[in-house]
## 1
Amino acid sequence: MVDFEPKIIAFCCANCASAAAQIAEQASWQLPANVKIVQLPCTGRLDSLHLLKALENGADGVYVAGCQLDSCQYKSGVEKAAKKVAYVKKLLEDLGVEPERVELFNVGAAKAHKFIQIAEDMVNKVKELGPTPLK
Amino acid sequence: MSGSDVSKNVAVIGGGVAGLNAALDLADQGFKVYILEKEASLGGLIPKLHRLYPICSCCKVANRVIACQQHPSIEVFTESSVENVSGEAPSFTINVKTPSGNKDIQVAAIVVAPGLEPFDPSVYDTYAYSSLPNVITSVEFEWMQKPIGPNKGVVTKPSDGQIPKKVAWLQCVGSRDINKCDAPYCSSVCCMYALKEAVNLKDALPEADVAIFFMDMRTHGKGYEKFYNDAKEKGVRLVRTRIHSIESTLNSEELILEYVDENGEKKEEIFDLVVLSVGLRPASDVKYLADKLGLKLTEYGYIESSELNPGETNVPGVFVCGAAVGPRDVYQSVIGAQAVSGKVAAFLKDNGAEPEQISFRDVSEEDVKIGVVLSLCPGKNGEFESMVSGLSSYCESLDGVTAVKRIDLVNADAFRELADWLKSTNVNRLVYASCSPVMHKEMVEWALKQASLNPTLYNFVDLRTLGTGAQEEERLKDLLRATVLQARLSEPLPVKAIPIEKSALVIGGGVAGMVASLALADAGIDVTLVERKDRLGGHSHKVKSTWMGTDVQEYFKDLVSRVQNNPKINVLMNATVENARGFGGQFESTVVQDGKEISVKHGVTIIATGGHSIRPSEYSYGQHNEIYRWSDFTKKLIDEPDAFNSAKSGVFIQCVGSREPERPYCSRLCCTFTVQTACYLKDKNPDMDIYVLYRDMRTFGEREKLYKEAREKGVLFIRYDVERKPTVIVKDGKLEVQVFDPILGRDLILKPDFISLQSAIYAEPAEKLASLYNISLTDEGFLKESPAKMRPVDGEVEGVYFAGLVAGPKGTEESVEEAWAAAERALRFIKQGVVLVGGVVAEVDPNKCAVCLTCVRTCPFGVPYIESVQEAAYIDPSLCQGCGMCVSECPGKAIMFKKLSDDHIIAMTKTLVGEA
């Protein structure tokens, strides 16, 4: 298991999380290579199906990086995403799959460090969990 | 777009936030702009700051810098200075010293925006800034807090690199004092930035003791009071005193602050880091530029500008904006810059270039031909460079890709080059990989338009936060493959160019509404001005003068006659807007006048419905004729200038209904009103006793001099706490005020002849208008600016702007500036000629819609509604903001989002994890 390199999909908001990425870029901080980003216009665009299909297709973990609750450009997008993440987590639990494979993080536009940190945390977490049983 | 037609050329001197905004708005209006910046990079002071209230600075300035560097109508000269200016409007020649030799540029108008400099406290020996390492300035502190700064966002003590445990901010360093190195004015921004820095530190180090030592807490901006309240709640300590000096222990590790608190008690505290909240000074080159251009300076060394003609200087054709006009914050600088852009366009009596005609090629029948562009910022390092050729050939091998190109974003030519390449390769989809995709979006869409390609045919790949080396090449290949796949799957989305109606509806006939109407009418726009009452002027009827003393009565009466005599302005009195439909570019509103419905078609809407002061329910208001609201007090002085000359004593009570739970904001102008009026009364009758009962005196900026003057004239100021408010009783027909004096430590009884209550300002209720035009209100009932950062007079949808009291409490001169800004934003929009409707929007399939109303409830902008003919939800493509929320919420999957469908997302995730 030591060599296990998880595949992780990150659904990122094109506003706040993207701005955080911009600062991280300026600071030359790097995202772990396991993480592949799919940008959404708003995390409110996220559907439970997207999370489930990503897992079904072989992702070992999926996370959502949305805005802080008080600064969503579309007011309530990230709240909607949070509900879907909670729903999928419950579903995974019922299936006997670790719900930690799916997470949501609020990343303010200036939180460059957090943007990288959550990616690293997610990689470490999924490394502990091992490969997805859903494949 | 060449600079050959001098009458369309404008020079902007200074590339800070004001200069950038002025440049972009002028360029959008069709002018050719030269930006002259003395530093090596654009942005001014803001890139050095950590965050701006309320969120951050990163998304506010960086995108404007990039836009300026790459705008086809903007030429940027960095490390350049003005050597000489000759000629006069509209034909100036500026000799510019650039790193590659001197150049002459010909311009018709000049905008001066050299900005500010923080005060240098090293001359200030009592704070020992030079000798004690742990005494730093707020700018240095913020640089440590900045994640991309040398400290990577971690605040440490300069002496030993350790994390500080006790940090103090000292306010008014270099402000509000008249020692040899100070300025008598208030710098206006320091209270807010100290709060911001302290709150950010508290967030990072919750156990740290964080204290701000201040005289008056001046959080007079829109939403600022809330931040102040939150700061207190987060445990930031606020101590009302002025620190006299900083002492230190022998090893200079401990900094001792000695002070006398408000109860007169002597205290001593030890801190390990002290931040000096340094004030603002005009930039060092302000005087030099003023000499070159023949501009007058104020007594404080700022550039003199006309109070009610925002941005105008004593030299025709030369305008000024930003902090070179006086201490001001970013929002005011942006408003000023927008107002000046409007002024310049009006001065040049030129409508800029004609809008470009847009037509899109129909690519639906063409085979998919994807062009991939690898766009490299100068910041991308050598190792990345080495991957480019490998990635290029990988992209060429992908299904659907017919052309691959690398572009280097070094100058404005990059996007022109991109446009030419799009034309010559004849591709019909673009995959664009860059390290600032969001900021490049506008420029890429511009290039697509040049090649007659629908802007929705563009997908981007984010090159940010990626490393280098073999592993990275694999990830990049994955990302490129996924995005090419998405491009291949996507179909062109219908985009319709709808002409913008060249007319405006201005709602509210006060000063803001009238100024905006006149600015638009002078630019050739037909204006309908709707006023609820039977007279124009609004609140100005009760304003005597601006804080600098300009007669507002005379000013607004002149405006009224100009509005009434302007053939381009149709004034509808006794009228209200009852209904509206449409979108920016094509509105149709129903105005009801005397029971009669009038339909008005207009391209833009400006809301300037004003505000009122509340009728107090305290301080015995209404029980005695000599207890006035401040507006009525002024009205009386306007009608009878000597009305109060014989009074022996008068009391002014501040914050009546402001800064309390019901209205938790500052009404901004009452403190200035009070000191100005007190001075006026003292001039009339020097023996009159005048007492001002206040919580914090907020005579921000240069208004401070009125406060100083009032004290010199003998006006007495008594501070009260909100928990222990003064009381007013009417006893035997006489007034009696009781107030606790914190310095004497006991109650005082005052027996004034009159009382003026500075009652809170609130916006004329605007819920209905906000909902008709799809914009929103703040919690406090004022109109809310666009969430796209730094658009202070723009509503949340395009084509709707606002100005004056309805946007927040402010003085007449500030309303005038906002009105110019709103008119300029409206003109800039109208000059686009057409508005593109459709594109990345949600679309309902009426056959699948079960009319469950989920989308109606979900949409953050209230766009979907149930259309009765189809019996299905309908989403107006011109209003949809493209967030996609309803698409995912719709239980029947009846809403499509063709730019990024569920199939696209699933296919992308599959290819991202599916291989290797």
## 2
Amino acid sequence: MDYFLGLFLGGLTRGSIYALIALGYTMVYGIIELINFAHGEIYMIGAFTALIVISVLTLMGMNTIAILVIAGVIAVVYSSAYGYTLEKIAYKPLRAAPRLSALISAIGMSLFLQNYVLLAQTSDFLPFPNLVPDFEFMEPYAHIIGSAEIVILITTAIVMILLTILIKFTNIGKAMRAASQDKTMALLVGINVNRVISFTFVVGSATAAIGGVLIASHIGMINFYIGFIAGIKAFVAAVLGGIGSIPGAVLGGFVLGWTESFATGYISSDYEDVFAFLFLVLILIFRPQGILGRSDKHKA
Amino acid sequence: MITFGQIKKAVLVSIWFMFLTFPIMVIRVNPVEHIVEWRWKNMLLVGVGSFILSFVWHYFIRRKELGAQKAELGEWAEAIPLAQRIRSKKTLYKPALVAAGIFALAFPFIFSLYQTNIMASALIYVMLGLGLNIVVGLAGLLDLGYVAFYAVGAYAYALLNYHFGLSFWMVLPIGAALGATFGILLGFPVLRLRGDYLAIVTLGFGEIIRIILENWNEFSFGPSGIANIPRPSLFGIDLSVHNATIYIYYIMIGLCLLTIFVVNRLQDSRIGRAWIALREDETACQAMGIDKTKTKLTAFALGAMWAGMSGVVFAAKTTFVNPASFTIWESIIILCIVVLGGMGSILGVIAGALVLILMPEYLRALSEFRMLAFGILLVVMMVFRPGGLIPNVRRTYKFEGVANDEKS
């Protein structure tokens, strides 16, 4: 039973990271109907920036909590800045072009960002310090769930709540919903659609950076390639839940996390990545709109 | 010409990029030994570089917008590229073709073995590019798992030879058939998808094949791969390494000619027209009575067939296969070839393959920047020249005489 519970909670942790990254895909897709292929790279850059800031601050001799907060904030700021710039360079000039062009441009950006980090930093795996201290009250449950996992779950929940508030109750959230329904109409009622799109990229990149820092500190290793597989899996999560739907992305992340966790726990760990892809193929065949997605014949 | 506003903008862009690249370009940490390296020189480089690039970028964006405006007014005569002009003129086209043919045939005798070997690799990519061109360029189905079919061909030769001792020439058609079968296998589930969904599913398919090859040790010998694959023999005579390389070069020339011929004929055939129609508008295409299922599946099968064949040649050429040769980046390089050359244009794809594969070979010093450059290339091509180096020119009918009569 403990084994099952461990796998269940492990899947939940894994799933909440997927969900954090999947949110960026889903929000961008909801507004400009483009798969931001380079989204995984934004997450990787977030993790790298955090690592660099942590290393510099540790050498300066700051205390751990301060480092944690500063590194997190800087990672979020930089990821958002990258997301914003990415949209301006690679997607904005192609807004009127066929979708295939925008997709190829996104792949190019992903390739560029990976190699940019590879050349400017290193191709080796870098150790990422564990930022979360071991809580004492967690001691009796340590064999099932670690402190880091608890922090990941709580952070994810907070981000989800904030995001829901942002989209449901603020002006910019209203503008985002309007732009995702009909861009021309949104323009006509005086919404600056370009600004809304930029804002969406910024928010999506910020959640990806939070996910990046959390998972990097949990796994303890990063390199320039982590964004690619994580990005693909988060995309699977977004599609699984119904792309364009925010609760869907969260649900999709959890379902994918559990699938992987149980499949590797009970079947075999060699084929961990295959499960995600097989899952994706199966969903797209049997329920292309996802679990919570609207049925829209033009999408699939 | 350069106004104050533009300079201000460029300075802002430059500052923005210096800020953006600061942690990753300037600071390098070594978490094991706790050393931080500050590389301020890189910051200067980024600042100056982005300042200049900002001008270039905005200049080209303005030019593109101007072009779009003129095209709307009907003033813009699409500049016909040199290659297309040569093609359309019979007196130039034939001698050019003959010269290219003689050059290709004499290549192994003019240049060294090393050059011939590189050229043979480039020709494998020409074939892969032309195959992917059917799927992406003609049918408009973005396939990011193309390398899987290449792997199928390579492993088909390696395994059939290892277990049953089949020769290169026997496996070549088998590889093609296997490639096509896998193409249909992939095609069935993704029939209903288009665009981005299709791209991700095919990408997943490519990765699944690679992961299976890596983990299923009893079948594919895992990550260590299969070595000592025989090179092709000439009517049963085993050739020396030197002669075999030249032989493979000629096999590739032959196969490329076959590919060019077939793809060219396909393009103008009923099925080729159906692919183009499908690419432009799926609904309208079905309304015209084209069977979508059949058309898409033939595109996948015919595209994958060439990948299977070139996989067989690849295995025979390197005499060694392992899963590391068939990563997703290989698919993306092939996609780059098609995009750079011009989607749907045969001449473009050939040029694209030669440029992209030969250039890194001769610019060894810059080879670590290769993938970086490919990334930039994809974005820049899509933004400024979506048609590629040698764009595919549509066949059009002109009724010039009628227009003149009306005027007079």
